[in-house]
Amino acid sequence: MSDANLTIVLLVIAFAATLVGRFVVRRFGLRLRRIPAYEALPLLAADAVESDHRLHFSLGQSALATASTVSALAGAEIFYRLAERVAIAEQTPTFSLADPLALPLAQDTLRRAYEYRQRAGKWHSRLAAWYPQGIAFAAGVASLSADRREHSLILLGRYREELAFFGEGALRHDQRLIAHSDWVEGQAVAYAQAEHVLLGEELYVGPAYLGGNALERGGVFALEMLRWLVIAGIAVELLQALL
């Protein structure tokens, strides 16, 4: 089977599993697996509104039209769900990024959230901040966050070891930190320093946990079902090899 045919087969299986999950959610209900980070995110947004605090969203080096496109879109969707909640407050969030290709995505994410709340006048393009990649990005964003006295940092995307700058800054300025990285180096730092961490594919189920509809929650069911199928396939291959 060619790579193209294999991709089509996998997409069909994923789509069918999602529809099955949607049916299960509507017919029987579905209790999602507990992920502490998704329990904390709505509370951070509510606290930002009630206490007049600022939030900081960051995609790191994730960008469009690159290998990190999926993490960029997934992170932006989570930030949109959170921005909807804080758009009613006076304090505006900051959205930082390290790749110019992600700048329009960041600006449009916040614009849509403020338009949804009918507060388009509070939005402006300067809410999205670009810094060069690497250590300069981490140092610049950490400094900006401290200057704006932001209460929480939510980092979802592509980071390497520079994520440690955010952890150190958050500790020094008494900021809350929730993080994820699609690079192993950044994920290790996030696990060690963040108050809550999203691991691996947990990034891609954010909409289902943040007020998701039946189709989004069904997608989580499909992801779990496909994961167990992969595990079963690996187990069968190992048994055959042993026998």
Describe the structure.
This protein has 243 residues and is α/β, with parallel strands linked by helices. It folds into 2 domains: 1-32 and 213-243, no CATH class; 36-197, Rossmann fold (3-Layer(aba) Sandwich), CATH 3.40.50. It is 58% helix and 12% strand. It has 9 helices and 6 strands, in the order ααβαβαβαβαβαβαα. The protein has helices spanning 3-28, 36-51, 69-86, 103-116, 135-147, 163-172, 184-193, 206-209, 214-242, and strands spanning 55-60, 94-97, 128-130, 152-158, 176-181, 196-197. It has a 6-stranded parallel beta sheet, sandwiched between helices. α3 (69-86) links the parallel β1 (55-60) and β2 (94-97). α1 (3-28) crosses α9 (214-242) and α5 (135-147) runs parallel beside α6. The longest helix has 29 residues, at 214-242. It is globular and about 60 Å long. The two termini are 26 Å apart. 40% of the residues are buried.
